[in-house]
Amino acid sequence: MDRTDRASRVIAAPPETVYGALLDRDSLEAWLPPDGMRGRVERWDPRPGGGFRMVLTYLNPVDSPGKTSDATDVVDVGFADLVPSERVVQRAVFDSDDPSYAGTMTMTWHLVAAGDGTEVTVTATDVPPGIDQEVHEAGIASSLANLASYVEGID
Fold it and tell me: What is a single Pfam family found in this protein's UniProt entry (predicted)?
């Protein structure tokens, strides 16, 4: 699992606002699920060494079979590193019987001030081979677009 996927976007909100949306349960449920999915956080502990469990449900599972069941992806995420307004590092493990989704994927959310906004770059390393790279990068980009829509109305 040497693959790295990434996406980035400039968001018209300060790093503090973006960082807050990365560590707020209700915010995460609202913006993290990519297009075609909805999410629910089952467990929440926003501190280094803590984490969350998210259930992502496909709105149309016929075209997008899930990793955990026909209609869902369940992922346990640990917070490996939290640097306020700069970085969130997550370790994600999918709940799946399929060995192609096994292992721990690291998702690093880098925040850099860019004028009046924030450049957010998401880098996923050790991506399980069962996750299609093009689909994954599109999903990350979709989540970033949702994040932008969510936080740009806050300030």
Answer: AHSA1
Domain total in the chain: 1
**At 19, which amino acid appears?**
Y
Helix (H, G, I), strand (E, B) or coil at 137: helix
Beta partners for 36?
none
Q: Residue 62: which of 71, 51, 53, 74 has the closest Cα?
A: 71
**Identity at 14, one-letter amino acid code:** P
Q: Residue 18: is it exposed, middle or buried by C-beta count within 10 angstroms (0-12/13-18/19+)?
A: buried
**At residue 61, does pLDDT exceed 70?**
no
Position 148 in a domain: yes
Q: Do the domain assignments include residue 24?
A: yes
* Contact criterion met (CB below 8 Å) for 51 and 45: yes
